[in-house]
Design brief:
Keywords: Methyltransferase, Transferase. InterPro entries: DNA_methylase_N4/N6 (IPR002941), DNA_methylase_N6_adenine_CS (IPR002052), RM_Methyltransferase (IPR001091), SAM-dependent_MTases_sf (IPR029063). The chain has 327 residues and is an alpha/beta fold. The protein has helices at 7-10, 31-37, 59-66, 95-115, 131-140, 194-201, 226-231, 240-250, 267-275, 286-301; strands at 19-21, 24-28, 43-48, 73-74, 87-88, 116-125, 144-152, 181-187, 218-220, 257-260, 278-283. α9 (267-275) runs parallel beside α10 (286-301).
Length: 327
């Protein structure tokens, strides 16, 4: 369907979800089309891992990924006995690609802002190479920047010596070895004071880990384990251990609806189910919808080993940490 079609022409084409599990609903749609149909002030928080390279999730590039023929996806060999996950080559994006990325995220931010209630937070996974463009786009869309949440994780990205010259330059890394992942944090402006907004809209802040421990902006994590990857075959799958902490924080009073407009194989919906939240996912690719049907219940049942949050001194917090799969 063309994105230029009016809401009136579209009618209520997204009234029925493709999949329902508990309080989670998953729609097979383009997220911009879906957002255009939703009522204003209907979503209380958003946690999402978008295709911030955009190119890598086109049908053409997804076919290459699934046939392991590369394309924009870097299909690395095994390393130290471990099978490395495919990674998109963001360094190959052209100036036109980057301009398209920024325009898309501004359009998306404007569409999302309309359906968010005042004070609703938006947490968006990014990449150090493009996060500045996404951040500027969301700011221009009218959302208030509230910092970043750092996912402290070491991946296989970066650290390589110059291609075809590794022996000539053995002491050179072309890029730093990635040891963190930025999650941009934005908010729709609240109405009145935060207390006023909390009373009316149930939003405006972030849910604390405990009475003694606020939600922090650094979360220790690990690469998604083999068990979860076997359940949900998505190249950008994030671990439940991390997602449940992020999703839990997004609703300060534990009330409302969490949206993932780039739902993939449904890991955010599984995390929301595990912490007892209502959630909505939107995914364009029918193949991932089918994966999510099987994956969401299994991911929601996982009991990951929780890592204690980091306090202001960079040490494990001695107070209560998020431990269980459900509040």
């Amino acid at each position: 369907m063309s994105k230029k079609a009016s809401v009136a022409e579209q009618g209520t084409i997204f009234s029925s979800p493709a999949y329902v599990f508990g309080q989670a609903k998953l729609y097979n749609a383009d997220c911009l089309d879906w957002l255009a149909e939703q009522p204003e002030n209907s979503i209380h928080g958003c946690v999402t891992d978008p295709p911030y390279g955009l190119v890598e999730y086109t049908a053409h590039e997804q076919r290459k990924l699934r046939s392991r023929k590369g394309g924009v996806w870097r299909i690395p060999p095994s390393y130290d006995g471990h099978k490395r996950a495919p990674l998109p080559r963001f360094t190959t994006l052209t100036s036109a690609d980057l301009d398209h990325l920024q325009k898309f995220f501004q359009e998306w931010g404007e569409a999302l802002k309309r359906v968010l209630v005042p004070g609703a937070h938006v947490m968006v996974a990014a990449n150090p190479l493009v996060s500045h463009l996404v951040s500027v786009a969301l700011y221009r869309a009218g959302l208030e920047r509230r910092g970043e949440v750092v996912r402290l994780v070491q991946t296989m990205r970066g650290g390589d010596r110059p291609k075809n010259a590794h022996e000539e330059f053995p002491d050179v890394s072309v890029m730093p070895r990635s040891q963190w992942e930025p999650w941009l944090l934005f908010r729709k402006l609240p109405e009145g004071t935060i207390a006023d907004n909390l009373r009316k809209w149930k939003t405006g802040g972030l849910r604390r880990v405990s009475g003694e421990q606020p939600f922090g902006d650094v979360i220790r994590s690990a690469p998604t384990n083999r068990r979860e990857r076997a359940i949900a075959a998505h190249p950008s799958l994030k671990p439940q251990e991390f997602l449940r902490q992020a999703v839990r924080a997004i609703l300060p009073l534990g009330e409302g609806v969490v949206l993932d407009p780039f739902a993939g194989s449904g890991s955010t919906l599984a995390a929301a189910h595990a912490v007892g939240y209502e959630s909505i996912g939107v995914e364009l690719d029918p193949a991932y919808i089918e994966i999510a049907r099987q994956a969401v219940p299994k991911l929601a049942e996982i009991s990951p080993t929780a890592r204690k949050p980091i306090n202001g001194r960079g040490k494990p917090n001695p107070g209560e940490a998020f431990q269980g799969p459900r509040d």
